[in-house]
Amino acid sequence: MPDDEQTRRSSLNPVTDEDIPNAEVSPMSSETLPATSITPTTAAAPVAARAAEIASDASAPNVVFDVRDLNVFYGAFKAVRDVNLSVHKHEITAFIGPSGCGKSTVLRCFDRMNDLIESARVEGQVLYHGVDLYDPRIDPVEVRKRIGMVFQKPNPFPKSIYDNIAFGPKISGSKENLDDVVEKALRQAALWDEVKDRLKKSAMGLSGGQQQRLCIARAIAVEPEVILMDEPCSALDPIATARIEDLMQELKSEYTILIVTHNMQQAARVSDRTAFFTTEVNPESDTRTGMLVEFDSTNTIFSAPSDERTENYVTGRFG
Ligand SMILES: Nc1ncnc2c1ncn2[C@@H]1O[C@H](COP(=O)(O)OP(=O)(O)OP(=O)(O)O)[C@@H](O)[C@H]1O
Ligand SMILES: [Mg+2]
Predict the structure, then answer these.
(1) Does any domain span residue 311?
(2) pLDDT tens across 244-289, in order?
(3) The pTM is what?
(4) Ligand 1, pocket-test mutation among 70, 81, 103, most atoms within 8 A of CB
(5) Does some domain include residue 236?
């Protein structure tokens, strides 16, 4: 592993409880944090048997995220409750479930994007290599450098292809040669051959599938450890979708990937583990709260789920 890579990864190493006060995840004083309605909690709330199993598994060094008793509110509305799951290094973890069950809400907790929604409030813990991302000492900007996001609709900047990729490394003060960074990211995103002769042309002139690969290249140019993808193929045709799926398989040797998808075949094809969410009605308020029903290996979720609701969903009887 090159030295700089070693340095970058070493600051992401799992830390023990004693390490947390001196953790290298840029502890920040609460004065330096932007105003936020996030409520960090250190309370170890009770977890169900399966969650306990997952939590014990989470001591393994290949666990990147360990989510414990996560609840997310928008104002007084509890959007999603009791999420317990772990995300493993160099795996693809899929979130599936009907519209409104909280997949995007939960995904946004992994890079503190919910901080940007004024009414959002998070309870519970999202441990990243053992460090709670919602600890008040953690700088959300630092979090987002390590955990990149690709959105449903490709959103290139109205700039050249080159500048889209170079933007992140430039502002983060990368010492590497920008031409090399751009080429490497575009190669990793399987886009280089299609754009190498038009790097200075506008990114807006690319096809939708190319734009989405550009957004993936832009996310990986800043060398994150994790890539979050919220329905990255929903605006793409089957051929572009297949390319992104192949790309995800290639990228997982270097990155850890979380993907929200409505396409169950896609989850079954690409992911190693799957979390199935659903909604339950709150009769008194006539609102619906999302909840995690089952989290397991993708094989188990699709071939032998333990919950009837999962089975109904994956066999198309519901949703
Ligand atoms: N910014 C917000 N403000 C208030 N409520 C929100 C906000 N974003 C989401 N919600 C609510 O939270 C719940 C979960 O929404 P979320 O977008 O996470 O669901 P989802 O599973 O991603 O759905 P979809 O499959 O349609 O994308 C829904 O009831 C939604 O209306
Ligand atoms: Mg969504």
Answers:
(1) yes
(2) 999 999 999 999 999 999 999 999 999 999 999 999 998 888 899 9
(3) 0.82
(4) 103
(5) yes
φ, ψ (nearest 5 deg) of residue 53: -60, -45
Domain count, the chain: 1
**Whether residue 266 has its Cβ less than 6 Å from ligand 1:** no
| Residue 206 Cβ < 6 Å to ligand 1 | no
Q: Is the CB of 83 under 6 A from ligand 1?
A: no
Which two tokens mark 236? 């793409």
Q: How far apart are CA 97 and CA 313, in angstroms?
A: 8
Say how many C-beta atoms besides its own lie within 10 A of residue 46's C-beta.
7
Judge whether 116 lies within some domain. Answer: yes
Q: Residue 139's domain is classified under what CATH number? A: 3.40.50.300
User: 207 CA to middle of ligand 2, Å?
Assistant: 23
98 lines ligand 1 (CB under 6 A): no
**Distance between CA atoms of residues 64 and 46, nearest Å:** 21
Please check whether residue 171 lies inside any domain of the structure.
no
